[in-house]
């Protein structure tokens, strides 16, 4: 089990608070300037270029295929 001291240190160094984590979603939802931007990757209230895997059509098709199998399996 991870000790409270280790968790607290990791939290302070790497994790965002709830308001920090929600800031980008709130910005995109409420800012009129963001309303004109569609289909982009947002982080820390800025449009960023995603990792190459995020724009790989073959990988996207594979993800879709696997997701369909999962969903159909649940039905």
Question: What does the model show?
Answer:
It is a single chain. The chain is mostly helical. It is 56% helix and 8% strand. The chain contains three helices and two strands; from the N terminus they run H-H-E-E-H. Strands 1-2 form a two-stranded antiparallel ribbon. A hairpin with a 2-residue loop joins strand 1 and strand 2. It starts with a helix and ends with a helix.
Give the structure's gist in a few sentences.
With 75 residues, the chain is mainly alpha-helical.
What's the number of helices? 3
| Number of DSSP E strands | 2
- Major sheet: size, sense and barrel closure? 2 strands, antiparallel
Overall SS class: mainly alpha
The overall pLDDT average reads 89
Q: Could you say which overall geometry the principal axes of the C-alpha atoms support?
A: extended
Major beta sheet, strand line-up: 1-2
* Order of SSEs: HHEEH
Give the N-terminus to C-terminus distance in angstroms: 37 Å
- How large a portion of the residues is in β-strands, by DSSP E? 5-15%
């Amino acid at each position: 089990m991870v000790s409270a001291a280790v968790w607290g240190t990791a939290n302070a160094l790497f994790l965002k608070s709830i308001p920090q984590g929600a800031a980008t979603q709130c910005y995109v939802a409420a800012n009129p300037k963001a309303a004109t931007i569609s289909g982009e990757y947002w982080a820390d209230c800025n449009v960023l270029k995603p990792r190459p895997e995020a724009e790989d059509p073959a990988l996207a098709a594979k993800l879709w295929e696997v997701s369909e199998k999962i969903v159909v399996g649940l039905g």
